[in-house]
Amino acid sequence: MSCWFNPYKPQSTIAISTRIRLARNIMGIPFPSRMSPEQFKTVNDLVRSAICDCEEPIAKNLKYISMNDIPQIERFAMVERHIISKNFASNYQNRAIIISEDESICVMLGEEDHIRIQVLFDGMQLERAYNIANSIDKILCNRLNIAFDSRIGFLTACPTNVGTGLRASVMLHLPMIGDNMKNFSNIINQNGFTIRGMYGEGTKALASLYQISNQKTLGMSENDAIKNLKIITQKALEKENTARRGINKLWLEDKVMRSYGVLKNARLLTSEELLSRISDVILGVGMGVVESKIWPIELLVNTQPNMLMKKLGEMSPKSRDIERANMVRDLL
Amino acid sequence: MSCWFNPYKPQSTIAISTRIRLARNIMGIPFPSRMSPEQFKTVNDLVRSAICDCEEPIAKNLKYISMNDIPQIERFAMVERHIISKNFASNYQNRAIIISEDESICVMLGEEDHIRIQVLFDGMQLERAYNIANSIDKILCNRLNIAFDSRIGFLTACPTNVGTGLRASVMLHLPMIGDNMKNFSNIINQNGFTIRGMYGEGTKALASLYQISNQKTLGMSENDAIKNLKIITQKALEKENTARRGINKLWLEDKVMRSYGVLKNARLLTSEELLSRISDVILGVGMGVVESKIWPIELLVNTQPNMLMKKLGEMSPKSRDIERANMVRDLL
Questions:
Q1: With an 8 Å Cβ cutoff, is A160 touching chain B?
Q2: Which of the two ends of chain A, N or C, has the fewest CB atoms closer than 10 A to its terminal CB?
Q3: pLDDT, tens digit, for every residue of B142-195?
Q4: Could you tell me the residue range of the domain that residue A138 belongs to?
């Protein structure tokens, strides 16, 4: 089964993944922060029958799962696979998801809004992801009384989502922008987008993985938001590629092969070190310096704490560092 | 050809090598610091004929070489192989050596004293080395008028060598004594011995290679000096072995295999980094954690700056870091 971190063939070693999220709510029911258990059930039942009982081809592939039926380690492993939010994994009671087998589609019920449609793909596939999210949105809008104001658009729990309810984002691997990240991040913010490190706060993100997403949901169409995100992402790719053309080949080979050598030989690997070593290997794969049997992003996701424990059972952080190193040696 | 850094089979991964040096001078000729070119020639000729024209089996194996005939890179490569002193390699004019094919015996003519007999073996072979130095000394004493005072012993240029003129030393790899080195070094000094790092000054020697040698040459027989050095060396070995028994196996494997992985993959290696990585590998070989195709000490000596340039031609430090990494990858 292929998914965003484990594509059949990676599209790009810079644009790692694409995410579309639409926030929707049902008229006449309070937002989740004020919902009673009965109201959670009402939302779950309404959305479940709207999607799972409809005849649209896309709905055939989707399965309703109560969050109560998912054990804690798997819930947080889903966070590590970017399928659900951390907050949703913690406050899971009465909640449910409607999810596709390859996990590219996941509808969270009872997160900050009643309904959050998420579509997640590898590489840069904004239109494809948006079209799928949109077709699920259409099913919902046709069958449910979705809260919508003709003047301002979709109503959401948080004012920052009011309007389109769309958050489109792209995860980029930008190891060579590095020192210029602060400048670049100012440009991004001035254009109504945000950039943040996927791992670690501040400008120096661990693993150099960054997520750029739109901020504006009001007074702008979905298509414009996506078009603008594509433009800003293109700028990031150009900046990164320009920096890569200036790399000293020997310095690069040394940096990449050292990290590769450590990954292939270490007996203890913390998540932090893994992130930084994997980042070097992704860069190396992108620059043709090293070949990796496994797409490094898959290695990164599969060795996150809960992903490890899902496979090998609950264990201490120290034991995880050992098992992480074992798994990395085996797979690399 | 086997030599101290390239033995057929390493005797020990802690006791790396043994060195015996005897300082001798010829009566009636000033010490080298005050010698004229003619007097250098006189010393060279006297010692050359004393050794090379004699019928002793040991002398058959020895060859006289004028230092003028040895190019600069090879002179300093000899320093890196511990065959001659750095001072002798710099102030080489008018000087000569008498050396065995395997370089285990080297007699320097015109160093600080007229004659310095050096015998160098792998592992801990103090008696064997001393016996060989002694047999050469006997040849000299029988054929030349060696400066000797019946009350105090052999006369030497520096008062610290007067008496036996013997410096016996053992090179030890002590990575686990580490933090206790200062304490241990005090004990050694109190017993009339010195310990110093082979690479880098101070208590934290690069590569954890230390040389313990006798200080006392006056009022003590050669046999006692060697016996005491053996006792103090035994103490160091015990201390190191005790510390090794306390090592966490996983920590050790991680440390050793990381260094091994870096050596097998790096594209740039400074001498300093090589020393510290090789030290981990020697420890790993000693503890049975890693197998090395090449005895790491051989790798260490062969990748020293002048040893590299002797093989590959003169080059900049940066180029040496590249060639060092290439050689290490090839040999490991």
A1: no
A2: N
A3: 999 999 999 999 999 999 999 999 999 999 999 998 777 888 888 888 888 999
A4: 15-243
